[in-house]
Amino acid sequence: MSKTVRRCFAVDLYDDPAMIARYRAWHAAGGPPPAVNAAIRADDVRALEIWLVGDRMFMILEQGDQYEAAAKADRDAANPDVQAWDALMRTFQKPLPFAPDQTWVEMARIYALSEQP
Asked: Any alpha helices (H) in the chain, and if so which ranges?
């Protein structure tokens, strides 16, 4: 049976209502370029959701057994469509204060109801 791993990430948006509205529009159904969605799916990402509150975003990524972060990073770096999308999205994203050179910082799970007595 194939295993699915859930990973969560966070980043902020610039606190500008017009920019946040544009960012949301880019992520509406049909907003991201098909090549970007295809690149995500090709690397055994089984589910990906982005949640927003205020200017804080939270991404839930579920990956399968074939997902390899380093290989995905290499393929994304060689993909001009993914690079263009990433460059555009970075114009909206404000790095978290403790990770000034990074977007989408991976979060650590600190609680699971399933592990509680």
From this structure: 17-26, 34-42, 69-77, 80-90
